[in-house]
Amino acid sequence: MRKISVLIGICMLAALAITILAQQAPPTDLSPVMKDVAATTNKLRMDLMSSNAADVAADAEKLQGLFRQAAGFFKAQKAQDAVDFAKANVQRAGDIMKAAKENNLDAAKAPAGDLQKSCKNCHDVHREQLPDKTFKFKP
Ligand code: HEC
């Protein structure tokens, strides 16, 4: 009986460790992250236009998580400049979220504009379009 409980305990610890590792592992495919970035950035623009502070805060929080994942991807690819681009957007998303939570959407406009302009800077250097019109990371 005792042995079985120890075994169960070990299994539970192993399951926990796997869950934690899976959460920390960087994505191996950036495409779904980027599609989500595009959709959420569009939604952010609309929510800023309609002055919907609660939704702006939620969009910014989502973008923060997505650019954290992107930073992890670029780190694994050893593309430090892209890590820095992505981290700058984590910071901007945090600034947008803070402003929105304080119901001060005017203060969210500058970081939101910078975030929207950042796409091209990184894509010009690190994104490549394949003949089938899909994209891939370019080291
Ligand atoms: C730090 C670099 C970086 C930043 C910043 C960045 N991207 Fe990307 N993006 C990439 C790379 C690399 C790819 C190609 C990877 C892929 O699609 O597999 C990509 C691909 C995409 C794709 C194509 C996805 C697909 O597979 O069809 C979209 C859409 C996209 N990005 C939108 C955005 C938008 C919108 C922003 C700005 C809000 C942005 N990205 C900011 C690096 C970046």
Number of helices: 5
Q: H/E element string?
A: HHHHHEE
SS elements, strand count: 2
Adjacency order of strands in the biggest sheet: 1-2
CA-to-CA gap between the ends?
55 Å
| Quaternary | single chain
Describe the fold and architecture:
It is a single chain. The chain has a two-stranded antiparallel sheet. The protein has a single domain (29-137), classed as Four Helix Bundle (Hemerythrin (Met), subunit A) (Up-down Bundle). By secondary structure, the protein is mainly alpha-helical. It is built from 5 helices and 2 strands; from the N terminus they run H-H-H-H-H-E-E. Helices cover 78% and strands 4% of the residues. Strand 1 and strand 2 form a beta hairpin. The structure holds heme C. The site of heme C has 24 residues, from helix 2, helix 4, helix 5 and strand 2.
